[in-house]
Design goal:
Bound molecules: zinc ion
CATH topology of the largest domain: Lysozyme-like
CATH class of the largest domain: Alpha Beta
Number of domains: 2
Order of helices and strands: EHEHEEEEEHEHHEEEEEEEEH
CATH superfamily of the largest domain: Peptidoglycan recognition protein-like
Strand order of the largest sheet: 1-4-3-5-2-8
Helix content: 25-40%
Structural class: alpha/beta
Largest sheet: 6 strands, mixed
Number of helices: 6
Number of strands: 16
Length: about 325
């Protein structure tokens, strides 16, 4: 369970600007300041640039350290953290860099990796926790997470090196970070069931629609196309709709019932099924051998039955002969 302490920077001009965003991503920053922890940034930044109280126009949604997550802006508030257009789309948070090292000419110096490892492990985990929480909150995934330096490469943020000037010292990168978030997010939301595949039949024009049932048409899907998905919706008329993706666009397609001829369900031969098939083939040949040996036994028993029958018949005849003699 993630614990977030909310304490909005209401004196900061970014807060009073009160612009809202629909979060489409998360930008990870680090403070480039040694040893100032998350709660201490409140007094440093809860000031008005316009009123001449502070020399910079910055505000982020949160600061985190090894023990705390301090939320300083509502997450759907437009922050001032990227120095670029990412402010319109990305939630930004700062990871507080530990005490015990220095910046000389913008470069980290006297950084003792071994001594800093316990702090790094904790803050790295807290950053992942926060990202997992925000991804779930705004229906995002790991691919929507970048750091400030990656934002610069994408042309949506100013030229800063965080956090890739720091993570590699501990053998981490934004790729390892995203992989960790991905693992934690598990299956995509709504995808609780097994993937099913449907081939579009030619009986009528099948359309990808924005919603189901019968939402706005996005585009027709050609006959023979195979679509897939895990999420279904049954309409009141009995038509079953599949949430899918065609040509890179998400939407809904009527797939069932089969009697409508919209689609034909197709089955992918997965490796598991191949393995099962091989196992079953072995089992079948063993059963064939068993069947043949039972057949042989049966034939032998049949012959024995014939022999027993004839000796029985002989005995009966003898009894009759004896009966004729004496009765
Ligand atoms: Zn930054």
């Amino acid at each position: 369970m993630i614990e977030i302490t909310q304490k909005f920077m209401t004196r900061n001009d970014c807060y009073t600007a009160n612009k809202k965003i629909v979060p489409k991503g998360i930008m990870v920053h680090s403070t480039a300041t040694s040893g100032v922890m998350a709660p201490a940034w409140f007094d440093r930044w809860n000031k008005s640039y316009k009123a001449g109280e502070i020399g910079r126009q910055s505000c982020v949604h949160a600061f985190i350290d090894d023990v705390t997550i301090m939320q300083y802006l509502p997450f759907n508030h437009r922050g001032w953290h990227a120095g670029g257009t990412a402010n319109n789309t990305h939630i930004g948070f700062e990871m507080c860099e530990p005490k015990g090292f220095k910046y000389v000419n913008g470069k980290i110096t006297e950084y003792d990796v071994t001594a800093q490892q316990p702090y790094f492990d904790k803050i790295y985990k807290n950053a992942i926790d926060l990202c997992v929480y925000l991804c779930k909150l705004y229906n995002l995934n790991e691919t929507n997470i970048i750091c400030h330096s990656e934002g610069h490469k994408q042309g949506i943020a100013s030229n800063h090196g965080d956090v890739m000037h720091w993570f590699p010292k501990h053998g981490k990168s934004m790729d390892t970070f995203r992989a960790e978030v991905k693992k934690r997010l598990g299956k995509p939301s709504g995808g609780s069931d097994e993937m099913r595949y449907f081939e579009i039949m030619g009986n009528e024009v099948m359309n990808l629609r924005a919603t189901a049932p019968n939402g706005k048409i996005i585009k027709p899907i050609p006959t023979g196309t195979i679509i897939s998905g895990t999420e279904f919706l049954t309409a009141s008329n009995g038509t079953i709709w599949l949430k899918t993706e065609y040509d890179g666009i998400g939407g809904w397609v009527a797939v069932l019932p089969e009697s409508k001829g919209y689609t034909k369900e197709v089955f992918k031969v997965e490796d598991d099924y191949k393995k099962l098939y091989e196992q079953e083939k072995v089992r079948a040949s063993m059963l064939e051998l068993e069947k043949n040996s039972l057949k042989q036994q049966n034939e032998k028993l049949g012959k024995e039955i014939v022999l027993l029958q004839s000796s029985y018949d002989n005995v009966i005849m003898d009894i009759r002969k004896l009966a004729n003699k004496y009765l």
